[in-house]
Amino acid sequence: MKAIIVEDEAIASRRLKRLISEIGSPEIEILDVFDNVSETAAFLLENEHPDLIFLDIHVADGNSFELFNIVDEIRSGIIFTTAYNDYAPLAFRKQALDYLLKPVKREELLEAIHRNNSLTKRDVEEIKSSYSEFKNRFLIRFGAKLHIIKTEDIAYIYSENKISYFVLNEGRKIPSDYKLQELELMLDPDQFFRANRQLIVYIDAISEILTYSKSRVKLRLQPPYKSDMVVSTETTPKLKAWLDR
After folding, report:
1. pTM of the model
2. If pLDDT is split at 50, 70 and 90, which confidence band does 133 have?
């Protein structure tokens, strides 16, 4: 089996490599170790995908879930290795084989690796469905103010200067301390779509879809977004598939 490790802590990556080598069966060749999303994405876009990816969540250039927005389809088994347990639902919705908390234990690692050889597509879908509870409302504290926002009232959420703004159907804009990566975990992906790194949009907020180029589209939102919302070449097919469910 071939694998890559995505981990920005040198001590943690060395320990993981040692544990993998100690397991011995199945024999795993570590092709490379990356400490950021951009280099990992470049490797996956230019090479045959390995059998396994050992994926930390907080890496040198951000959150490793961004990898799924860059690479259209990751054809590897993914084992998350992280110090944070908050992201487990999103990890399993991204078809993770397992979610191991640091410090990773040898027995848990061995079980996760063996699971890569035994899970069927149906098994993966069942795991995903077991993590399908989503928020119906948010209590947002920003400064001295508290806001209760029903999910059904959200048109879209955008990020600017490290602040995420909830834009409601009525046009109100409410700032929050949430990160878009966190909100992806909390919102139903059948209703909300991560259009790019700055924007999550509710399906009914899309008022018009325009051809922008041969491989890209532009969205018009209601209430209007502050600038043209052009969807990238990589994300446009995902958007079309999401809209055509």
Report:
1. 0.59
2. low
